[in-house]
Fold this protein.
Amino acid sequence: MSRTVGVLALQGAFAAHIAILRSIGADTVEVRTAEQLASVDGLVLPGGESTTMSMLLERFGLLEPLRSRIHDNQLPVFGTCAGMILLADEILDGRADQHCLKALPLSARRNGYGRQLASFETDIEVSGLDEPFHGIFIRAPIVERIGDAVEVLAEVDGQPVLCRHEGVTVASFHPELSGDSRLHRRWLIDAGLIEA
Ligand code: GLN
């Protein structure tokens, strides 16, 4: 049976995720409605602006369906940058009315690298990858707390930047912007959406 990968397409860097997923042969659709959400076997939450995405999730009637698919059906999800913030169970420096989906035990501080280091690029050693991954950080969140069960796959300056917890993978950077599909492929394999 063919498996469909959704990319939340309300706002932000969703087009680059779709391109990279299609380049590795994943059957990929944009998700903007509850019907589309119900039809996917995994979902990417892209970077962008987490406060805006939170508001649009509510407005498009996707917030509760997405919560229930993650918590009741263990929908595999891959959240990058703002997507990581949305999947956290605690948001620091968020807006008071900003929602989080509590997909994994992790606190994310918005724009945690401060003004000077707001955006930067660096090569990252990722556990399980032979060659470093080029990480592009754009007003990225900092991970300030993770639960014991969360696996840290990569760190920058001692801080986790890529974490995995069951079918949930989160990156504080933008893996879709490096022209490197290894992290998407790995999540798809973890999620059982493509063959290893
Ligand atoms: N700072 C943004 C937020 O709070 C995230 C930035 C990004 O996704 N590149 O949502």
User: Anything to note?
Assistant: The domain at 4-190 is CATH 3.40.50.880 (Rossmann fold). The radius of gyration is 15 Å. The chain has six helices and twelve strands.
